[in-house]
Amino acid sequence: MYDMKNSAYAQSEKKQMMLRIIDILIVIIAFFFILYVFVMNQDFLLKTIIGSILAIIIIVYGSIMYETKKVLNNITDTDIQKIVLLSEQGKEMKEWSIKGKTSLLIGKSTTELEADIDLSGTEYESLINYEHAVLNCVSGMWYIEDIDSVNGVGIKKSNKRVKNRLKYDNPSRINHGDIIYIANTRILVK
């Protein structure tokens, strides 16, 4: 089975770690600055001005962090339960439960290879590779990756109008409501 130990997740982890380090450094610097101004210094005007500036900075920084956490919660708040094959008319034809799984191969099954999401018998079967794409769950987030298919993999985000073609070996995050295109076959993420 194709497994994703790719750079998308590693880069995300590195960014989060750097943000944590920056936050810790800001707190340490602010602590010593406040200690100097409010404990060691006796100038009332300086304390008032610096106190006001610090209050404004704390409010702005807090609101930025609140908005960032809100966005991150929306990104990671995916409760993807299943993948649904859609007909040309948009009707649900077949579904696969992905709850509790970590990696799924999308393609066509043969006697030697069993695809987890088997698209044999679909209208565009001839355009689908036996090993076309892979879905991987990393830290509760699902990614799709084209594994060098001939006719490609596309994704249309639920909040966008156009679909984007994935590049080989470049995983893309999927969310509830996105539509995956395996060649011309449409799969809805639910």
From TrEMBL:
Q: What is this protein called?
A: Uncharacterized protein YxeA
Which InterPro entries does the annotation name? FHA_dom, SMAD_FHA_dom_sf
Name the Gene3D superfamilies on file: 2.60.200.20
Is NADP set as a keyword in this record?
no
Q: What taxonomic lineage is listed for the species of origin?
A: Bacteria, Bacillati, Bacillota, Bacilli, Bacillales
Species per Swiss-Prot/TrEMBL record: Lysinibacillus parviboronicapiens
Q: Which UniProt keywords apply?
A: Membrane, Transmembrane, Transmembrane helix
Q: Which residues form the FHA domain?
A: 104-160
Q: Where are the transmembrane segments?
A: 21-38, 44-64
Please tell me whether the keyword NADP is annotated for this protein: no
